[in-house]
Specification:
This protein is of the alpha+beta class and 404 residues long. Helices cover 34% and strands 28% of the residues. It has a domain of 241 residues: FAD/NAD(P)-binding domain (3-Layer(bba) Sandwich). The strands form three sheets. Strands 5, 6, 12, 13, 14, 15, 16, 17 and 20 form a nine-stranded mixed sheet that branches. Strands 1, 2, 8, 9, 10, 11, 18 and 19 form an eight-stranded mixed sheet that branches. A three-stranded antiparallel sheet has the order 3-7-4. It is globular and about 60 Å long.
Length: 404
């Protein structure tokens, strides 16, 4: 019997596993099994950058250090970004109204890191294994919740534990098996991701342009290229995906207003239909959901992984506190404390992201112009800029101890 079984070894599941198996000053590491049917292979050093990248906040960086994963990320797959430039299509990328967040304004070396998705997941799984965690290369298939334990089945056999954590992503099978209801709403938008070369240097800056039909971000990569995330209404995105490479690059140049000069595609294009997913409850007796299994938000603020890693740390903190107090870590009372903490933080973030999407990314009229004026006001006030930079660093809200 294990203390905990984690279903799903994406970045969030691997992180909670590493934090629980590694223990804290007061609590020895727990025995943790993790189910992941498709663990990623290690990328050769000279492989092109991964198409999926994530923006990691300072809070996430601290958590990854605590989990023992930060030092395992190859430096060529991590790129520090020092600035963000955010503007609406109603002004030029060089206009004084462009909102600029600069790490130097708050005396920080950078605002965070752009990390390749596969390198992040591999580093966290390695940290989990080093902390003594046990990995089963198998999918979850069935759940039986008992009075004192929970049984998790895979096609290879069954495992038991006192708590099962669902970290198996937006389509979570564990969430369905536990009978946890979920609200799902399509945004009617699709995100296109690709790697591009630009004729102007990215200047270690994350660039984001809001347009009447979507949002376009350029995230700086360590090799000088950029990863684009272009969220557009479904029909427009389908048209963009079907274009030839050169015709797509020409559309990209129009959409970026040449902020980084002209572009050239370096990779294929991947597209993701965008959904808002919100589990009505994050917990049940002996079951807790974290990461995309509990909530999926619009990628425009680059917060998906950051929110999930904070879930992982908050849950690990509550579970460790319960174990230190000789309580049952699968008890609903313990899990509810995690749910109360994280559900409200995630809801607040999801509301502000959706407001940006509705007003700035899709507004063409007076409201969008008002929002652009708002960006200029923020830009003009050092106090307001500092406030938002702290939010971008992920250092606001009630942080788990491991992220402080
Ligand atoms: C276009 C796009 C851009 C994004 N950009 C950013 C960004 O810049 N910053 C950011 O923070 N976030 C970003 N995100 C969001 C981010 O990718 C997700 O929030 C993140 O991957 C969630 O991690 P997770 O570990 O919860 O789930 P996942 O990464 O989905 O991992 C789930 C894991 O569970 C496994 N699994 C599935 N089914 C089973 C099963 N039955 N049994 C066992 N295991 C199973 C899967 O193999 C997988 O490894 C973006 C998302 C999109 C779509």
């Amino acid at each position: 019997m294990f203390d905990v079984i984690v279903v799903g070894g994406g970045p969030v599941g691997a992180c909670v596993g590493a934090l629980l198996a590694g223990g804290t000053g007061r609590v020895a590491g727990l025995s943790v099994a993790l189910l992941e049917p498709r663990p990623p292979g290690v990328l050769p050093g000279d492989a092109r950058p991964d198409l999926r990248v994530v923006a990691l906040s300072r809070a996430s960086e601290r958590l990854l250090k605590r989990a023992g994963a930060w030092g395992q990320m190859p430096s060529e797959r991590l790129s520090a970004y020092e600035r963000m430039r955010i503007w609406h299509e109603s002004i030029a990328p060089t206009d004084a109204g462009v909102l600029v967040f600069d790490a130097a304004d708050v005396g920080e070396p950078n605002l965070g890191y752009i990390a390749e998705g596969r390198a992040l997941q591999t580093a966290l799984l390695a940290a989990f294994a080093e902390a003594g965690g046990h990995i089963e290369t198998a999918p979850f298939s069935a759940l039986a919740i008992g009075e004192k334990e929970v049984q998790v089945s895979t096609p290879q056999g069954a495992l038991t534990a006192r708590l099962v954590i669902g970290a198996d992503g937006a389509q979570s099978a564990l969430r369905a098996a536990a009978g946890l209801a979920v609200d799902i709403r399509a945004y009617g938008q699709t995100a296109i991701v690709a790697n591009v070369a630009t004729t102007r240097p990215h200047e270690s800056t994350a660039w984001q342009r809001f347009m009447r039909d979507g949002t376009l971000a350029f995230l700086p990569l360590a090799d000088g290229s950029s990863s684009i995330v272009w969220s557009a209404d479904d029909a427009r995105a389908a048209g963009l995906v079907s274009l030839s490479d050169t015709a797509f690059a020409a559309e990209l140049d129009r959409a970026s207003d040449l902020a980084l000069g002209t572009t050239r595609l370096l990779s294929q294009r991947l597209s993701f239909p965008l959904m808002r997913v919100a589990a009505q409850r994050y917990v049940a007796q002996r079951v807790a959901l974290i990461g995309d299994a509990a909530h999926v938000v619009h990628p425009l603020a680059g917060q998906g992984v950051n929110l999930g890693l904070l879930d992982a740390a908050a849950l690990a903190q509550e579970v460790n506190a319960a174990v230190a107090a000789r309580e049952d870590p699968g008890a609903l009372r313990v899990l509810r404390a995690y749910e109360r903490w994280r559900k409200s933080e995630v809801a607040a973030m999801a509301i502000s992201i959706d407001t940006f999407d509705r007003l700035l990314a899709h507004g063409a009229g007076p409201l969008a112009r008002l929002m652009q004026r708002g960006l200029s006001w923020v830009n003009a006030s050092q106090e307001l800029r500092r406030f938002f930079i702290r939010r971008a660093l992920g250092l606001s809200g009630e942080l788990p101890e491991a992220a402080r």
